[in-house]
């Protein structure tokens, strides 16, 4: 964990530049395509509403000028009262339309944002699921995923920013053209007033992005601490070991470090912001005074004075908004890069084209040829130069002490990882030549650390072959064979009972009961190769005996790999592989290995002695 890596207000890493921000703007067209794909009708409606809304400020100001000039004319005895009333009605109509349009725009923005959020979250989940376990071993991958995940919720407002930018630009152009018709020098004054403020805004946005980005690992750590501090899974240990203070202090320290780094930047940003906005106000009042003098000198009418003063103020704030929004959009476009980067990560384990369908039935079986494997970021290989055969229909047990490489071997068989050296053959062809989906379909693995889904009992069993979730007879048959039906019969809602502790009405199970449920997944799976990693470790002696009685039916006619520390399980196997430090040290039947008097026999005797 990264705690203590930084002091307060630590220097920022990965500073981004103008160039980064400009080049990130190229993310906007694909982003806009994403929005449009989310809902073409809402996107088009939004644009149309905004074009209408964009023209209104100028129209309102101009009608205001006509009203004032008409009032002045009436006072002078030359005006037309009917025209005045018509203009007042028009002004009211425009004001009502403007209000209606803004409400409609924010409604459409909100709906579009929600849809975009949903869609991107689903895309993210799908993409994450398509990636390899390799990626999940890598902390940088988690950082990327975290940044991408945050995009979905915070980037939705980029949609309205982009569309609002379009709207403000149209408003500014319309206002600009009408102001230039009266006083072109006002446009020059306007640009001079706003540019410095834009530059500072932009600078601080980049700084903020760099800060947020460089703190991604710490933010993930904060999320993790928040989770372990208050979760159903950790609550027991947190209480027993009295970890609450340890966790909250750690959270407190890290979150304060982030606060201080953020605070320094926020203060600088606010101070400079105040300075430049004072300059803006000065320019506005300068322009105002000039317009007033022109009116006094009779160069322009009183109506034009109000029009120009109002238009200048609107243009000034409009231009400021456009420019600062431009830098926010640039900053958001940088964040978008994280999202697109995440989507660009490709799975390493994938079909290479012309893949073979998985053989059905398998003819000869598997063969490991000098297979070695090291986990990413690990120096020591978990599997070393391993060669053995796994003939079709054979029941093989993997035995060895903790860390010997048994689970790793299973992951290689299921192609969750690929060998770093050597080959795994199936019916004489490299495993990589087979279609990945059909391989996964034909291999069933129940891992030692199987997952306890906080879902119903039915769903927990059906995950073994989720497409069969509606097949109640199959679910019940699997439960009978794994003894899960005994567990289900004690549940108030039977198969519909929610399991776990997280949701209202859920019931938690004991370790052994969960294992029976997990075992039912193996029966649901009914694959050609069945791999069971410690399938009975949590079962009591009677349950284990009964499960074994049924096991024979489960693995009848199939190839099975069993991993177990219990020799009662191991004995069932036709063939036993004894692993040590990732290598094969002994193999044979139980009788052969006990007769050999080697490592297997030694462990067997140790366990047997425990029962004497
Ligand atoms: N995800 C991982 N990243 C890095 N190293 C790992 C990872 N998983 C396991 N290892 C290492 O690989 C080696 C083999 O682990 P493996 O889980 O295959 O052992 P095992 O024989 O199944 O052990 P056990 O009986 O305790 O389940 C161990 O040294 C372990 O530390």
Describe the structure.
The chain crosses the membrane at residues 272-293. By secondary structure, this protein is an alpha/beta fold. The chain folds into two domains: 28-344, ABC transporter transmembrane region fold (Up-down Bundle), CATH 1.20.1560.10; 365-610, Rossmann fold (3-Layer(aba) Sandwich), CATH 3.40.50.300. 63% of the residues lie in helices and 9% in strands. It is built from 22 helices and ten strands. It has a six-stranded mixed β-sheet, sandwiched between helices. It has a four-stranded antiparallel β-sheet with strand order 2-1-4-5, covered by helices on one side. Helix 4 (81-130) packs antiparallel against helix 7. The longest helix has 53 residues, at 244-296. The protein is elongated and about 125 Å long.
CATH superfamily of the largest domain: ABC transporter type 1, transmembrane domain
Number of strands: 10
State the CATH class of the largest domain. Mainly Alpha
Bound molecules: adenosine-5'-triphosphate
Mean pLDDT: 86
Main sheet: strand order: 6-7-8-3-9-10
Quickly give the CATH architecture of the largest domain: Up-down Bundle
Domain module count = 2
Class per helix and strand makeup: alpha/beta
Question: Largest beta sheet, briefly?
Answer: 6 strands, mixed
- CATH-defined fold name of the largest domain: ABC transporter transmembrane region fold
What is the overall shape?
A: elongated
N- to C-terminal separation? Answer: 46 Å
Helix content: 55-70%
Contiguous helical run count: 22
Radius of gyration: 35 Å
Task: Give the uncertain stretches in residue-range form.
Answer: 1-13
- Which percent range describes the beta-strand content? 5-15%
């Amino acid at each position: 964990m990264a705690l203590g890596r930084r002091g307060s207000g630590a220097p920022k890493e990965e500073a981004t530049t103008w160039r980064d921000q400009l080049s990130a703007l190229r993310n906007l067209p694909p982003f806009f395509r994403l929005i449009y794909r989310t809902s073409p009708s809402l996107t088009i409606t939004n644009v149309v509403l905004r074009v209408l809304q964009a023209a209104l400020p100028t129209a309102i100001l101009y009608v205001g000028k006509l009203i004032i000039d008409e009032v002045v004319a009436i006072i002078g005895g030359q005006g037309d009262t009917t025209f005045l009333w018509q203009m007042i009605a028009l002004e009211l109509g425009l004001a009502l339309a403007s209000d209606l349009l803004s409400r409609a725009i924010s409604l459409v923005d909100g709906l579009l944002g929600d849809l975009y959020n949903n869609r991107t979250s689903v895309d993210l989940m799908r993409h994450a699921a398509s990636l390899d376990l390799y990626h999940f071993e890598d902390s940088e991958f988690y950082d990327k995923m975290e940044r991408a995940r945050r995009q979905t919720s915070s980037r939705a407002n980029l949609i309205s920013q982009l569309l609002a930018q379009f709207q403000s630009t149209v408003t500014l152009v319309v206002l600009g053209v009408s102001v230039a018709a009266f006083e072109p020098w006002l446009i020059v004054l306007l640009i001079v007033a706003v540019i410095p403020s834009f530059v500072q805004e932009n600078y601080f946005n980049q700084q903020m992005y760099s800060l947020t980005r460089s703190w991604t690992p710490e933010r993930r750590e904060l999320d993790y601490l928040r989770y372990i501090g208050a979760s159903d899974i950790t609550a027991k240990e947190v209480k027993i070991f009295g970890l609450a203070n340890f966790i909250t202090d750690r959270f407190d320290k890290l979150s304060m470090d982030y606060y201080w780094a953020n605070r320094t930047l926020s203060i600088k940003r606010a101070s400079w912001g105040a300075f430049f906005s004072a300059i803006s106000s000065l320019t506005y009042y300068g322009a105002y005074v000039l317009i007033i003098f022109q009116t006094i000198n009779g160069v322009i009418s009183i109506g034009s004075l109000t029009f120009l003063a109002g238009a200048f103020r609107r243009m000034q704030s409009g231009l400021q908004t456009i420019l600062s929004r431009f830098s926010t959009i640039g900053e958001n476009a940088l964040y978008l890069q994280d999202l697109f980067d995440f989507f660009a990560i490709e799975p390493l384990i994938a079909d290479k084209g012309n893949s073979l369908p998985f053989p059905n039935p398998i003819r000869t079986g598997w063969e490991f040829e000098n297979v070695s494997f090291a986990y990413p970021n690990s120096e020591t290989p978990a599997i070393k130069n391993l060669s053995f055969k796994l003939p079709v229909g054979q029941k093989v047990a993997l035995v060895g002490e903790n860390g010997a490489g048994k689970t790793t071997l299973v992951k290689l068989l299921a192609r969750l990882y690929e060998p770093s050296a050597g080959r795994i053959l199936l019916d004489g062809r490299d495993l990589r030549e087979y279609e990945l989906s059909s391989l996964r379909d034909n291999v069933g693995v129940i891992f030692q650390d199987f997952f306890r889904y906080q879902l119903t009992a039915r769903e927990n069993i059906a995950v073994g072959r989720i497409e069969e979730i509606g097949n109640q007879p199959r679910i019940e048959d699997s439960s009978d064979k794994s003894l899960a039906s005994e567990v289900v019969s004690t549940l108030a809602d039977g198969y519909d009972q929610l399991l776990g502790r997280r949701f209202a009405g859920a019931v938690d199970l004991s370790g052994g009961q969960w294992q029976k449920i997990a075992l039912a997944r193996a029966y649901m799976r009914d694959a050609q190769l069945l791999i069971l990693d410690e399938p009975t470790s949590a079962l009591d002696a009677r349950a284990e005996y009964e499960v074994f009685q049924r096991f024979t039916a489960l693995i009848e006619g199939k190839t099975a790999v069993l991993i177990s520390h219990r020799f009662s399980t191991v004995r069932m196997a036709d063939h036993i592989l004894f692993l040590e430090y990732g290598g094969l040290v002994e193999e044979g039947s139980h009788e052969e290995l006990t007769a050999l008097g080697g490592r297997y026999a030694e462990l067997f005797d140790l366990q047997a002695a425990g029962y004497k």
